[in-house]
Amino acid sequence: MTLVLRLIINGVAIWLAAAWVHKIEILSPVDRGTGVKILVVLGIALVFTIVNALVKPIVRILSLPLVVVSLGLFLLVINALMLLLTAKITEAVSNEYGLRVEGFWTAIIGAVIISVVNWVLELLIPDRR
């Protein structure tokens, strides 16, 4: 249940980032309809969740000195790199479906939006503990 909730939250966050930043696109054929676009967003959210679960902890440990020196601001760079990695993975799988992020600064803005939306949505969901 937690994984499904995490996927939905990440999907909403990525969808909002694509809606608010004009250089972040969710790629899906227009003639396929809304259902296919929702599946594409959930697929992107799955890739993003896997990247955050497997790659991000390693990058955070390796960049710990930079995080400390920058007083945590380097975590934004790490989040942007995870978004760019997700875009590269989804673009490598298919040219018609996926996520496109044009540029590093666009990824920074998208990472900020995704982080804030994740934080707000997790506040709204009651904790089971």
Automatic annotation (TrEMBL):
Record flagged with keyword Methyltransferase: no
Transmembrane segments: 7-24, 36-55, 62-84, 104-125
Alphabetical UniProt keywords: Membrane, Transmembrane, Transmembrane helix
Domain of life: Bacteria
InterPro entries for this protein: Phage_holin_4_2
Coiled-coil annotated residue ranges, if any: none
Protein name: Phage holin family protein
Lineage: Bacteria, Bacillati, Actinomycetota, Actinomycetes, Mycobacteriales
